[in-house]
Amino acid sequence: MAVIPDELLTRGVAEIIVEAELRAKLTVGRKLRLKQGFDPSRPDMHIGHAVGLRKLKKFQELGHTIVLIVGDWTAQIGDPSGRDITRPRLTAEKVRENAVSYMEQFFRVIDRNKTEIRWQSEWFGDFTLENALDLAGRFTLAHMLSHDTFRKRYEAGAPLTILELMYPMLQGYDSVAVKADVEFGGTDQKFNNLAGRELQSQMGLTPQDVFLLPLIPGTDGRKMGKSFDNTVDILLSPENMFGKIMSMADEVMPLYFEVLTDVPLTDVSEIRQIIAGARENPMEIKKRLASEIVAQFHSPAAAIQGRDAFERQFQRREAPSDMPEFAIDAPMVIIDLLVATGLANSKSDARRLIDGGGVKLDNERISSFNQLISPTVVIQKGRHFVRITTKTE
């Protein structure tokens, strides 16, 4: 009888459907096929994706098989979950290009040599109209409209295409194709994952269990997602990754520690109490979190580098050693220069930043909209620095 580590089914887990079934499968010691799919709709993965990958890695270390599905077909549709508008469709070429980048990022977390990579085109490439009609006939409109996203858009009279209604069916068929025992996903994937369980049952297979992980907040407090542009991408430099973690609200730290690190749960519980009680400045706790995450995706040395860069820039108020440069051949008014360097989106935005004290010149706040700026100075807006240099012929 196999021994199940205590935290495997409890730490950082939102819901397991059906937990008793999964425990029984694990107890008998059978090697399970654990499925998780990713739609390469953009080239970069973020640390929210890593929540599921980290849990899969724990199962992989116990000898179970990870089956990663590259959604080269569903990515062309776009997952409608949580979307109040129809996504623009991607070309097959763009999806394949993004998938190449995804592959590199998958294996920063899980073991490439112990992972089965499957592309949807293996089975959907030869899908006939008969196959598609058979698949569509296995779900009712009432079933589809029980999907929260679909129902809200339908009731609001917003566009809802038949193609989008097909998305859960296609994702569900992946589970049939690879004979998945368990499917992993975020809580927003519950409907899609259960569609796989339903299809397997209809087609004479043992229904997969569903392992749901919590969604983590992004830099703006909403759920981390590429659509919201609030992600901490896996391919960020150590300095930028450290800085983005440090910019998170204090309240997210306990969850981040739980799902993105191996810090003991006793420590996580203490951190949760410190944050809730505001007993002390959480800066050092947040630095510990940022260091844990950077070390995981880069290296322990890179985590030290990221911490040093943060402390140099934000605590000792020193400019970073490596920053973009912008060359000018004559003095420029600060308003124009902020727009030209991209530190402001417009002149009105530049005035607002200056008026709010958000622009510094060589670490001194700028108060005049008309101040002339000459080369060999550093302009700062928040965490962004630009060195002004002299244009050469």
Separation of termini? Answer: 76 Å
Q: Could you give the count of β-strands?
A: 13
Oligomer: single chain
Structural class: alpha/beta
Q: Reading side by side through the largest sheet, how are the strands ordered? A: 1-6-5-2-3-4
Q: Largest sheet, if any?
A: 6 strands, mixed
Q: What is the CATH class name of the largest domain?
A: Alpha Beta
Provide the CATH topology of the largest domain.
Rossmann fold
Mean pLDDT across all residues, rounded? 85
Integer count of domains: 3
Question: What Rg is obtained from the alpha carbons, in whole angstroms?
Answer: 25 Å
The coarse silhouette is globular
Flag low-confidence runs.
none
List the main descriptive attributes of the protein structure presented here.
393 residues, alpha/beta, Tyrosyl-Transfer RNA Synthetase, 17 helices, Rossmann fold
Give the arrangement of secondary structure elements.
Layout: E1 15-17, H1 19-27, E2 33-38, H2 47-61, E3 65-70, H3 74-77, H4 92-106, E4 115-119, H5 121-124, H6 129-136, H7 141-144, H8 148-155, H9 162-178, E5 182-186, H10 190-202, E6 209-213, H11 238-246, H12 253-260, H13 265-277, H14 283-297, H15 300-315, E7 325-328, E8 332-333, H16 334-341, H17 347-355, E9 359-361, E10 364-365, E11 372-373, E12 377-381, E13 384-390
